[in-house]
Amino acid sequence: MFPEVFSSAADPIPPAGLALLEGGADLMIVVIVAYSVVNFVIQSIIQPKLVADAVNISLSVTFLSLVFWTFVIGPVGAILAVPLTLLGKSLLFDVDQDTRWMSGLLEGGSAPPEVEPETSPGDAPAAAG
Questions:
Q1: CA–CA distance, 118 with 57 (Å, rounded to integer)
Q2: What angle, rounded to 10 degrees, do the helices at 25-41 and 13-23 form?
Q3: Which alpha helices (H) appear in the chain, and where do they start and end?
Q4: Backbone angles phi, psi at 111, to 5 degrees
Q5: I want to staple 19 with a disulfide (CB 3.0 to 4.6 A). Which of 11, 24, 28, 127 is the partner?
Q6: Helix (H, G, I), strand (E, B), or coil: what is residue 73?
Q7: Rounded Cα distance, 26 and 93, in Å
Q8: Cα–Cα distance, 80 to 65 (Å, whole number)
Q9: Is the pLDDT of residue 13 over 80?
Q10: Whether pTM exceeds 0.70
Q11: How far is CA 112 from CA 6, 15, 48, in A?
């Protein structure tokens, strides 16, 4: 399947072993803690934000889809959460003009700016006087 997802627990073993040989148990613990912190930040904060930006859905929808699809179909749902959410979005919201506004609820970012009506110079009110 996806070795990079399932091997994250085994990844620090080689550098931790090298740190144990080079600097003892203290250095090994520092290496394991540093690896765990960096791995957590990348997989839990940076990667979901990049995925959400790439597929144009908000970060909260990405997280909620992960929880929902994992609950519905188990561990496979965690892997397929974003593709299944995009499939549902395209089938339910993007096909009809009447439901396209709901698609905007799933997308990240701010609302588009409102356009003010333009006035021509002849439409300006006359000065009282």
A1: 33
A2: 150
A3: 3-6, 13-23, 25-41, 47-55, 59-73, 75-92, 100-106
A4: -70, 150
A5: 28
A6: helix
A7: 55
A8: 9
A9: yes
A10: no
A11: 40, 48, 24
